[in-house]
Amino acid sequence: MTEDFLLELRCEEIPARMQEKARTDLASLFGERLKSLNLPFERIESYATPRRLALIVRGVAATTLAMSEERKGPRADAPAQAIEGFLRSTGLTRDQLVERDMGKAGQVLFAVIDRPGVVAGSVLASAATHVIHNFPWPKSMRWGAASSSTESLRWVRPLQGIIALLGDKLVPVEVAGVKSGVQTMGHRFHHPGAITIGSAADYIEKLRACHVIVDGAERRAIIAVGAKMAATKAGLTLVEDEGLLYENAGLTEWPVPLLGRFDPEFLSVPPEVIQLTARVNQKYFVCRDAAGKLANAFVCTANIDASDGGAKIVEGNQKVLAARLSDARFFYETDLKRRLEDLQPKLEKIVFHEKLGTVADKVERVAKLARWLVEEGIIPLPSGEGRGPLASAREKGEGDALSSDPHPSATSSLPPSPDGRGNLANLAERTARLAKADLVTGMVGEFPELQGLMGGYYAAAQGEDPAVAEAIRDHYKPVGQGDDVPTAPVTVAVALAERIDTLAQFFANDMKPTGSKDPFALRRAALSLLQIIFENNLRVRIFGVFTRQMDPAQARLREIVSDEIVGFLIDRLKVQQKEAGVRHDLIDAVFALGGEDDLVRLLARVHALQAFVNTEDGKNLLAGYKRAANILKKENFVIPAKAGISGDGAGQEPQDFSLSYTPENEEAALIQALDSAAPLADAAIAREDFEGAMAALATLRAPIDAFFDKVMVNEPGKREHRLALLARMRDAVHKVADFSRIEG
Amino acid sequence: MSQPLSFQRMILKLHDYWSERGCVILQPYDMRMGAGTFHPATTLKALGPEPWNAAYVQACRRPTDGRYGENPNRLQHYYQYQVILKPSPPDLQELYLGSLAAIGVDFTRHDIRFVEDDWESPTLGAWGLGWEVWCDGMEVTQFTYFQQMGGFDCKPVAGELTYGLERLAMYIQNKDSVYDLAFNDAGVTYGDVFLENEKQMSKYNFEVADTETLFEGFRKAMAECENCLDAGVPIAAYEQAIEASHLFNLLQARGVISVAERQAYIGRVRDLAKGSCEAWITHMTPEWQARYPGWTV
Q: Is residue A479 part of a domain?
């Protein structure tokens, strides 16, 4: 006969963000404990509301598993000492031991130990106590008179009550003065009194009758449906938000979504600001109108069925949001009164990092680099280039404001460039110079997460080129895997320049990530840089760009540091590409060739290589290569100067191999294969056709297999030549990758 | 429905309510401070084993929040109602809700929520866990179980309730501007009492206060705090910490403390507060241990 066990741990309001994890922790910890105590059960369900954690263990056995253990002891005629030792270790007496005839081994003593099952109740009580004492709350506290000692129980908030029922029987549990009982509390306002629970079977429904929906998923569903309906009834569409669903379900035991309105005048504030204020400060959903624009409505989630249908609640919430929005509008309107370039002096006062100067210093470096990246042709021109956007800004009479810039930029001192690249360079530099100004605006001071976005709005409002406004808005992107990667050329230039500068400066000042510590988020900066490069197929020799961005007075240091950064990027590349299934050893194999710091090309080679080593030809060629490399290593072979068998020479003068003997057929075939494959591979690599290069190498597979099959390398008089041939083969393979780095 | 409570009647109701529940009703501390928590009846009394239940109104000075009387929600001088109960009673939430009911909050029509808000005061070296209490989406009270004060564990833990009186009154009286609040039942508004004060004090805080005098005052408060600590009068030392804290707030309002310096100043104030708490504990421990055998810091 099995029964169900109910445990409810009632406490003061648990933070919404902790409830889901607490619920699953409770179930898993309790389940583990029961398993270790050998109490069988079917399954565990768990629940969380703001005021309680609960679990129901279904199908609990009446007792723990009875255990019968048999242990073999010494022979019956063993010395008394040995027998006594065995008795001690088993806790039995001599007459409780069993003697068995073990044939050749003679009469042997056995201990048969029976452990009877323990009744479920005491096991459940001990499991509950254990779990309560060891619960992994992210933050916990002491409270009440017991907290005179710091050893008192810690819980997320004061623990108020425990229900522990096996079937309909109370399981006595006592923790920190709280004794288990059969009563709990219903909804704080709808049902302030105590309610009695009979068993796990009536727990959920009794609480529901007292306005508590125990199941978080059900509360989320109620909010999701109710909020949607409230919006629909008002002719609007709800902007769905999973995070808000969880948060509101974690703040309510009886959720009631209510629609409220705000003054449409506030819609002059950017919609993102309104949504953020509503979401972060008030936990409201927002709505869109039929045209898809943000509507002057919100949905809040009350924890009560108000006697007036929620009229007062809506009124109160409207007032709060209105106060918040008027704050936001105040910031927005105040910010709009100042041009972004006029905020420069404030940036000069913000220390970016004590070793790296102010934000203004960084802006200056990034601006120059962004311009350079465009001028060098690293940033591709947009299709349909030809506008003169800066000229249009001037026509609007913005020239005066531009010249008030305390650091006159190229955009304000140079005439509009006649060509597209010049324009793009101007726009990129202009963007970089304005991109950080919003950090000192009122709105970003209030909502730091709006950095970039507000700058974009303010730039557009002051008549900047749309490409500049867009780039200011997006230049922090991507902020992680999965975020949009910029593709607009101006944005790409500035976003790339920013990451390059960050990495260069921190590495040059010896502030590199170590182990799990990465206080300046350089790994993220590196990842963003890779994403930008690959998404836009940017062809750039990155090493030189890093050296350029460091102090020219320290020529040697900057080369060392740039090498470090490139190595760091390659490490990040391995991590980033892992998800895409690209093998890290193949990245190493290509990178080990040296000199490959064009990441796009590097990755293309890796892709081709990975496709190749997965083919039958590739696998066998790799095996042949390893065999050749091993022989060369064992023989400590150095290519004789005269032999002229080098990778480079092979292409031009394949006929120079004069042999003093007649080669074996297989040897001749390999020479011939190399003579034709090497130049093909070279040519393919030159035109970045890495599949072509692999295909050329693939032609070596059969000849090298045959060579090893039939030809003896260490033949007197022929050894030098044959080793040189193997070296030639190795070098040919090295044109595409250092195969010695490839695993397997 | 009866007429909503005026500002002063709301305070009187709270006094009655907490007085009936065994609290000492104190008057505001006679010093300028940023929050009711700075009152020694909270800061110092939160330390040590002795039970302590007190309630009081405290004027709060937040120089940077001044808006020259032009913002209906922001003031550089406003009132908090502060309740401290040590050890925290098991029914603290119910007691608190009872006080809301006493000042006219109807729980059948209003939505009360306890929303996670962990409290921390870098200048007091104090932290606690608790909530901000929302009424229809508006924060009306900070509810905290002190865990540490002045860097010392609270043994036992005290429960602290900090009501924002103006907000509560605006809500109860259904007013959009703090200046329109009925201060009493005889036609005097909050604006009649405080509008001119806000205008002048905002100007003083932002424009007039002589920064050299403030810096000098800050240095003197630091020195005097040391002097008091040396002389074994921790309460007097703590008053200097309060003084230094307020002068720092004024210097901030005057915009003469850079971002880089800010942390250093907060650290100095914290050192004063921590030093005072430590001296207070040292001073009181023999007495505490005599009355509560077994109690340790």
A: yes
Q: Which of A142, A316, A320 sits opposite B147 (nearest CB)?
A: A142
At residue A403, the pLDDT reads 36
What is the chain B residue with the closest CA to A193?
B94
The CA distance from B75 to the nearest CA of chain A, in Å, is: 14
Question: What's the pLDDT score for residue B260?
Answer: 64
- For B254-283, what is each residue's pLDDT tens digit? 888 876 678 889 999 999 999 999 999 999
Residues A222 and A353 occupy one common structural domain = no
Q: How far apart are CA B102 and CA B10, in angstroms?
A: 9
Dist. CA A522–CA B283, nearest whole Å: 50
The answer to the question of residue A641 being in a domain is yes
Closest partner CB to B113 (pick from A251, A308, A350): A251
Q: How many CB pairs under 8 A join A and B?
A: 119
Q: Summarize the confidence of residues B228-244 as an average pLDDT.
A: 97
* DSSP conformation letters of chain B: -PPPPPHHHHHHHHHHHHHHTT-EEEPPPSS--SSGGGSHHHHTTTSSSS-EEEEEEEEEE-GGG--TT--SS--SEEEEEEEEEESPPTTHHHHHHHHHHHTT--TTTS-EEEEE--EEETTTTEEEEEEEEEETTEEEEEEEEEEEETTEE-SSPPEEEEEEHHHHHHHHHT-SSGGGSBSSSSS-BHHHHHHHHHHHHHHIIIIIS-HHHHHHHHHHHHHHHHHHHHHT-HHHHHHHHHHHHHHHHHHHHTT-S-HHHHHHHHHHHHHHHHHHHHHHHHHHHHHHHHHSTT---
Instruction: Establish if A564 belongs to a structural domain.
Output: yes
Taking CB atoms and an 8 Å limit, are A251 and B115 in contact across chains? yes
**In terms of domains, do A160 and A179 share one?**
yes
Residue A357 sits in the same domain as residue A392: yes
Q: Are residues A677 and A704 in the same domain?
A: yes
Residues A262 and A203 in one domain: no
Domain identity same for A681 and A732: yes
Asked if residue A198 and residue A226 are part of one domain, the reply reads no
Smallest Cβ–Cβ distance between B156 and the set A145, A157, A302 belongs to A145
Q: Say which CATH number the domain at A702 has.
A: 1.10.730.10
- Boundary (domain end) residue, out of A115, A135, A153: A115
Positions in chain A whose pLDDT score sits under 70:
383-418, 639-658
- Answer yes or no: do A312 and B109 touch at CB < 8 A: yes
Give the distance from residue A493's alpha carbon to the nearest chain B alpha carbon, in angstroms. 31
A146: domain CATH number?
3.30.70
B1 and chain A in contact, CB less than 8 A: no
Q: Which of A319, A336, A353 is the last residue of a domain?
A: A336
What percent of chain B has pLDDT above 90? Answer: 88
In which band, very low, low, confident or very high, does the pLDDT at B229 lie, cut at 50, 70 and 90? very high
Residue from the list A148, A307, A319 with its beta carbon closest to the beta carbon of B109 = A307
- Phi–psi pair at B69, nearest 5 degrees: 75, 10
pLDDT in tens, B82-128: 999 999 999 999 999 999 999 999 999 999 999 999 899 988 999 99
Structural domain range at position A384: 343-581
The CA-atom distances, in angstroms, between B225 and each of A285, B150, B187, B269 are: 51, 15, 45, 10
Note whether residue A586 is domain-resident.
Answer: no
pTM for the whole structure: 0.78
Residues A111 and A51 occupy one common structural domain: no
Distance from C-alpha of A192 to C-alpha of B69, rounded to nearest angstrom:
42
Q: A98 - beta bridge partners? A: A110
- With both helix axes pointing from N to C terminus, report the angle between A453-461 and A311-336 in degrees, rounded to the nearest 10: 60
Q: Does B137 touch chain A (CB under 8 A)?
A: yes
Domain count, chain A: 5
Cβ of residue B109 closer than 8 Å to a chain A Cβ: yes
B198 contacts B66 by C-beta, under 8 angstroms:
yes
